[in-house]
Design brief:
heterodimer, A: alpha+beta, S16 Ribosomal Protein, Chain: A, 34% strand, globular, B: mainly alpha, two-stranded antiparallel sheet, 6 strands, Ribosomal protein S35, mitochondrial (chain B), structural constituent of ribosome (chain B), Ribosomal_mS45 (chain B)
Chain lengths: 104, 384
């Protein structure tokens, strides 16, 4: 069966928080995964201690990722789901997925 | 079932007396206007006679208390410690005469707090130096800088400020003024205070031969259960403050005792642990060279500079180490910045079963206790 690297939702209502997990593709979202390799907090945080020079800094989202384990699982054929592909693309672990649309 | 409390308008019975301009005798009110009595005594069925204490209260309100009705700007309006009324300016301001231990501490005046901001942010002086100059605790200096910064940002954004409130409060509480040109700045608070260390609470009977010197350094070692210093090392320390320089340069040089969970660092003498250890050296220098004020000041400045440089370097190293493990990504098409932190999900970091409570991420099969009673979710401290 296919192994997937995907997000598993935690957190309460309106406060999502995801573990980045390696799991069998057909297992339930909340089932115990093979392994947790990271976390992703999709709620943007405002940077603190903003002074005039960097007052326009972007809000940030936090990702924690075990790169060694991610590389290993990718090496043995685990397939990232689309959201995880996006995160891993930013971390430089996989080629970013080509977008299906092009802005004019 | 009859209603216990009649549904009438509830009012503060004292208010008419306190707010009325003419101080009226209460007995006349109770006898002449029954409607007012009824109005002020809603919860009682019987007409209680005027008690002695109540009579005394109204007497006080019309005589001594009348002066407290309006405060004098720039002075406290406390029952005791008001210079003009009592003719006693030395007495500490005590808002509660029954509680002699409660002293109303002074707060920073507007000018002083602005001066703190100017010195730290515009003149680029260190918190430590400003703290010594103005006699304000370093933590308070840091807080003032943050708050003034916030105020300026709010002004820039055109947000309303509670200025009348601030003015009124500052008129009524004691404040530490900013010294005029040529005056000596009054100290706002003691800056070199040290809380009692818990390990000094033990009562230890430790016999020492009279021929041996036993200093604060040795006492700290006894309290932390460390072996006595070797004589060669101990002889090099002429004063406990000699240890300061080494420890500031390298805080990891403090010795450890105990094993495993009980491991602890050797308790250092107070000369090292106080917020401004360099002031001890300054005082020693002043005593040793009473006529060379300039040299003493110069040496003090050098020490301060050295200490600040060491602290700055250490801070920068720690920051660099933190930054090294975080990758900042700002995708072109996104409004957000992504901070990718290296994490290690190994047996050591997440436990044998992957369920260790300190492990990153959320756990499986372990209830989240964030809704439990007593769980503190708001931040309880600010990193300076």
């Amino acid at each position: 069966m296919v192994l997937r690297i995907r997000l598993a939702r935690f957190g309460n209502k309106h406060t999502p928080f995801y573990n980045i997990v390696v799991a069998q593709a057909r297992s339930a979202r909340g089932a115990k995964p093979l392994e947790v390799i990271g976390t992703y907090n999709p709620i943007p945080k405002k940077p603190t201690n903003l002074y005039d020079d960097n007052a326009n800094a972007r809000p940030y989202k936090e990702i924690a990722l075990d790169r060694a384990r991610a590389k290993y699982w990718l090496g043995v054929g685990a397939q990232p789901s689309d959201p995880v592909w996006k995160l891993m693309g930013m971390a430089g672990l996989v080629e970013p997925k080509p977008t299906t649309f092009h802005k004019a | 079932m009859a209603q216990r409390i009649q549904s009438r308008r509830v009012s503060n019975a004292l208010l008419p007396y306190l707010t009325s301009s003419q101080s009226s005798s209460t007995s006349s009110i109770s006898s002449t206007c029954p409607s007012s009595q009824l109005f002020s005594r809603q919860f009682s069925a019987t007409a209680a006679p005027q008690t002695k204490l109540r009579r005394q209260m109204f007497q006080w309100l019309s005589t001594e208390g009348a002066t407290l009705k309006h405060h004098i700007p720039g002075e406290t309006n406390y029952l005791s410690g008001r210079a003009e009324r009592d003719g006693d300016s030395n007495e500490a301001p005590r808002p509660f005469p029954g509680n002699r231990n409660f002293l109303s501490e002074t707060v920073l005046s507007e000018e002083l707090r602005n001066e703190v901001y100017v010195r730290v942010v515009e003149k680029k002086k260190s918190l430590r130096a400003v703290s010594v100059e103005l006699g304000i605790d370093m933590k308070r200096i840091a807080a003032v800088v943050r708050l003034v910064e916030m105020e300026r940002r709010q002004r820039a954004q055109g947000k309303p400020l509670a200025l009348p409130y601030a003015r009124a409060v500052h008129e009524m509480i004691p404040t530490t003024p900013l010294a005029q040109e040529g005056e000596r700045q009054p100290f706002h608070e003691p800056i070199n205070d040290l809380p009692a260390h818990p390990s000094t609470g033990a009562q230890i009977f430790y016999p020492v031969p009279e021929s041996r010197s036993f200093t604060r350094v040795d006492a700290g070692r006894v309290f932390s259960g460390a072996p006595t210093l070797e004589k060669a090392v101990a002889d090099k320390i002429s004063h406990p403050s000699d240890l300061v320089d080494d420890i500031i340069e390298n805080p990891n040089s403090i010795e450890w005792v105990g094993k495993g969970k009980n491991a602890r660092q050797v308790l250092q003498p107070a000369d090292v642990r106080i917020p401004h250890p360099q002031l001890v050296k300054l005082e020693l220098d002043r005593k040793a060279f009473p006529n060379e004020r300039r040299t003493v000041a110069q040496r003090h400045a050098e020490r301060l500079e050295k200490q600040e440089a060491a602290e700055k370097q250490r801070r920068e190293l720690a920051q660099a180490r933190r930054e090294k493990s975080i990758q900042h990504v700002e995708p072109e098409r996104s409004r957000f910045e992504y901070r990718i932190q290296d994490a290690k999900f190994t047996k050591e970091t997440v436990g044998v079963d992957g369920r260790a409570p300190w492990a990153p991420g959320r756990r499986y099969g372990i209830p989240a206790e964030d809704r439990k009673r007593g769980m503190v979710k708001i931040p309880t401290r600010v990193e300076a």
